[in-house]
Amino acid sequence: MRIGVLLLHGLTGMPSELRPLEKFLQKNGIETEAPVLAGHGGTHLDLNRVKFKEWVDSARDSLTLLLKRVDRVFLCGLSMGGTIAAMLALEIPEQCAGLILLSPTLDYDGSNLDNLTHQRAFKSKTLRNVLHALTEYIPGFGDAFYWTETPPYGLKDKRLQAQITKSIEAAKIGQSNEFGLFRTYFSSLHQMKLLTDQFHQMASRVDCPVLILHSLEDTLASMNNATEMYKSLGSQDKRLIAFTGCDHVMTLDLQRHFVLKRVGEFIARITDHEIIAPRKSNPVWSFEICDRLSEEGSLFFNNFITHNPDYLAAQKALIQSKTVECQGSHLEIKENNRVKAVMPLFAVTGRTLTVGYSQKRWSQDFNQPVENFTVKYLLYSFLNNIAKSIKAVHICLINGQILNKNQVTKAQYANQTSLVAEKKR
Fold it and tell me: Does the chain have fewer CB atoms within 10 Å around its N or its C terminus?
């Protein structure tokens, strides 16, 4: 069976963002297409003239070319490209093997918008709604408002940051370069909103296998985007991986080998195509929400139940006494791709996210620092995003104890985690 992958870049980006992934796939005998989306590759004036349907059309044209060479295809998108990929998945249900979403972005709400006052104003939904209405009805209005990206440009790699800084002057006068445009006009954001609105209308009909990768340190799009995407898609086979050590453009950043490995594993699981994983790796913690446990996760959890028989009794009492809405979801916690814990998740009566883990084991397993963070803080942040996505207002352990920030940070790391908290807001 011939396998292909369509690679779609993000808003104001270029196919070069996905080049390491493209080379990795080609090296493993997989066909690829990585088009320049309509309006990209030129000046900001070119992009401002394009409607979102033209982005989708240009992606569809490349998909048609790819399907002439392969039997089944994976649709992969970085940032806004993931939204387009999800929409195209509905058009080829028989040929779509899976959907790969990298740093999915339904809304730019990351901490990098806080760098300048006028950029911070774009985070206000009220202001955005007003600007969207004016852009819709007043020709040229959206071309008057923009922001120019500032460091770190969605990257933690200092070397790439320095290269982009040298190129940023070209972007300021509206020219593109190998990295893309770094000036974003509201007219383009308005088209992205229209694209997102259409995605929400059809997302529940997407039923192919889905892999979502998102960095907990993304400065352009918060984890809310990934959890919203995970919740919206109708697939019964989906996994959301939140991890540390990189920023938004994960295919170029410091954890790119981790990204290539997880994408390769996803493709291999579905197609049985042999994938040779990258040898290089950096230390990484990942928090993976899924409806079906991995083989290692299942073994870990079965061993946990064997040594903690009181857990099953607590779970049974929880289900019998209250309305459980998302029973069956699990969170796998991994260090360097090795399972360290498995936590069943339960949404109880829509107000409380209950975590299936004992207080004793919680404190034993997560009382350690990682890269100036604490694992417990990162875990709490991720659980908090999940809770928000299902409109839960509390997070508690299965024994009924409510979790809060004071319980998940160590005193000696208080200053460091407070800085992290400021960035996450």
Answer: C
Q: In the numeric block, which tokens belong to residue 208?
A: 């192919």
Closest C-alpha to 277, from 288, 291, 264, 287: 264
Residue 252 and residue 137 in contact, taking contact as beta carbons nearer than 8 Å = no
CB 306 within 8 A of CB 291: no
Answer whether 0.70 is exceeded by the pTM. Answer: yes
Nearest to 242 by CA among 366, 327, 332, 328: 332
Q: Which tokens sit at 388?
A: 């928000």
**Dihedral of alpha carbons 202, 205, 207, 211, sign:** positive
C-alpha Rg value of the chain to the nearest Å: 22
Asked if 359 and 397 touch (Cβ cutoff 8 Å), the reply is: yes
Concatenate the DSSP letters of all residues of 159-191 into one string.
Answer: HHHHHHHHHHHHHHTT---TT---EEEHHHHHH
CA 382 – CA 398 distance, rounded (Å): 18
- Residue 79 is encoded by which pair of tokens? 């940032």
**pLDDT truncated to tens, each residue of the chain (425 aa)?**
899 999 999 999 999 999 999 999 999 999 999 999 999 988 888 899 999 999 999 999 999 999 999 999 999 999 999 999 999 999 999 999 999 999 999 998 888 877 665 666 667 778 888 888 888 888 888 888 777 777 888 999 999 888 888 777 665 555 555 666 777 888 999 999 999 999 999 999 999 999 999 999 999 999 999 999 998 999 989 999 999 899 999 999 999 999 999 999 999 999 999 999 888 888 888 989 888 788 888 888 787 777 777 777 777 777 776 666 665 688 888 888 888 778 888 777 667 888 876 444 544 554 444 444 456 677 778 888 888 877 888 887 776 666 665 554 433 333 333 333 333 33
Other Cβ atoms within 10 Å of 136 Cβ, number: 12
Structure tokens at 111: 């901490």
Burial class (CB in 10 A: 0-12, 13-18, 19+), 289: buried
Residues 331, 288: contact at Cβ < 8 Å?
Answer: yes
Question: What CA–CA distance (Å, rounded) separates 343 from 325?
Answer: 16
**DSSP SS3 for 276:** coil
- Yes or no: say if 275 and 264 are a contact pair by the CB < 8 Å rule: yes
